[in-house]
């Protein structure tokens, strides 16, 4: 008997140190289906097939879940900057109902899509926000991004939003040596974590940072 999408997702998640409940597995798959269904309307992703969504979006975003649990034990608010169709924010919201996740994008219809996902999947801890990060106000304990901007631009653009004691979580491809050498003053990278995503033949890493103590 061939593996179902839920089997594949669950096995990949287990490799990443994440245990999926049935509900979480179904919500993740439903999110992938919504992304493909509405892609033409919202222009969400270059990935066009369920297998690609599984590896490039669901499993790749799930790769941030165990590191987040380890690096930041608190509860609170997470801002996913340049979230597009909600990556990795929606996946984190599904896996961490104890965290309030805001997916921010400068394009209104992408934020509207995340609002639609929150309603259809009944995720009260998820919302889509439409704004440019530089002009947003607020305070967040975790600020994440994936495929958003260079590290200096990410940190400079969101530093006013990081709560005291908060952390940045930047999902990148290859370890961005040049960007790490050009960090803004006052930003301290404390961990560069290389990742292996099941089914994805690409280098991936997370750069963790916080504000330097004054
Ligand atoms: C390459 S996409 C990445 C989307 C998603 N994070 C992912 O991994 O699939 C970058 C997103 O950043 C958004 N963006 C660009 N500049 C922005 C800004 N200043 N503030 C908020 N969003 C921005 C774009 O509209 C786009 O949706």
Q: What number of domains?
A: 1
Note the run of SSEs as H and E: HHHHEHEHEEHEHEE
Ranges where pLDDT stays below 50 over 5 or more residues in a row are none
The largest β sheet comes out as: 7 strands, mixed
CATH top level assignment: Alpha Beta
Which architecture would the CATH scheme give at its second level? 3-Layer(aba) Sandwich
As a percent range, the share of helical residues equals 25-40%
- CATH homolog superfamily: Vaccinia Virus protein VP39
* Average residue pLDDT: 96
Tally the helices: 8
What does this entry look like structurally?
By secondary structure, the protein is of the alpha/beta class. It has one domain (5-211): Rossmann fold. It is built from 8 helices and 7 strands; from the N terminus they run H-H-H-H-E-H-E-H-E-E-H-E-H-E-E. It has a 7-stranded mixed beta sheet, with helices on both faces. Helix 7 links the parallel strand 4 and strand 5 (162-172). The longest helix has 21 residues, at 22-42. The model has no long low-confidence stretch (mean pLDDT 96). S-adenosylmethionine is lined by residues 81-84, 87, 104-107, 110, 132-134, 146-148.
């Amino acid at each position: 008997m061939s593996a179902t999408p839920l089997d594949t997702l669950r096995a990949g998640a287990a490799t990443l140190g994440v245990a999926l409940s049935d509900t979480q597995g179904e919500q993740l798959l439903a999110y992938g289906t919504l992304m493909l269904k509405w892609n033409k309307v919202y222009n969400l992703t270059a990935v066009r097939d369920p297998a690609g969504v599984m590896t490039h979006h669901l499993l790749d975003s799930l790769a941030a879940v165990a590191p987040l649990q380890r690096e930041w034990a608190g509860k609170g608010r997470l801002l996913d900057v340049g979230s597009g169709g909600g990556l990795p924010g929606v996946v984190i919201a599904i896996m961490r109902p104890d965290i309030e996740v805001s997916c921010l994008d400068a394009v209104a219809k992408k934020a509207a899509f995340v609002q639609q996902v929150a309603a259809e999947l009944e995720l009260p801890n998820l919302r889509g926000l439409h704004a440019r990060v530089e002009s947003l106000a607020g305070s967040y304990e975790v600020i994440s991004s994936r495929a958003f901007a260079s590290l200096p631009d990410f940190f400079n653009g969101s530093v006013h939003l990081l709560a005291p004691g908060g952390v940045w979580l930047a999902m990148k491809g290859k370890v961005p040596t040049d960007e790490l050498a050009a960090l803004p003053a006052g930003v301290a990278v404390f961990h560069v974590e290389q990742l292996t995503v099941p089914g994805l033949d690409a280098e991936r890493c997370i750069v963790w940072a916080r504000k330097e103590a004054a």
